Amino acid sequence: xxxxxxxxxxxxxxxxxxxxxxxxxxxxxxxxxxxxxxxxxxxxxxxxxxxxxxxxxxxxxxxxxxxxxxxxxxxxxxxxxxxxxxxxxxxxxxxxxxxx
Length: 100
Known about the structure:
Blueprint: E1 3-14, E2 20-36, H1 39-46, E3 53-59, E4 69-72, E5 75-85, E6 90-97
Antiparallel strand pairs: 1-2, 1-4, 2-3, 3-6, 4-5, 5-6
């Protein structure tokens, strides 16, 4: 676990005029291992595409959903799949890089 990532979740607040405003709130800042997806796995999962597929391995954490996102430095990744490792020992977060 050589990287620090932030898991974020969409939140909605209401401004002074009653207008809902969406933003991202930090759920957790945790240590992770970054694994680049292999070309074969990338082609099988996503097909021919310009998206960058990255897998992050983290310790087990309850409550994550595909609506959350991962942030590593200034790079932002949408969650595509959450895979449990062992018996609640860890999670693989399969992600795709976004524009930000």
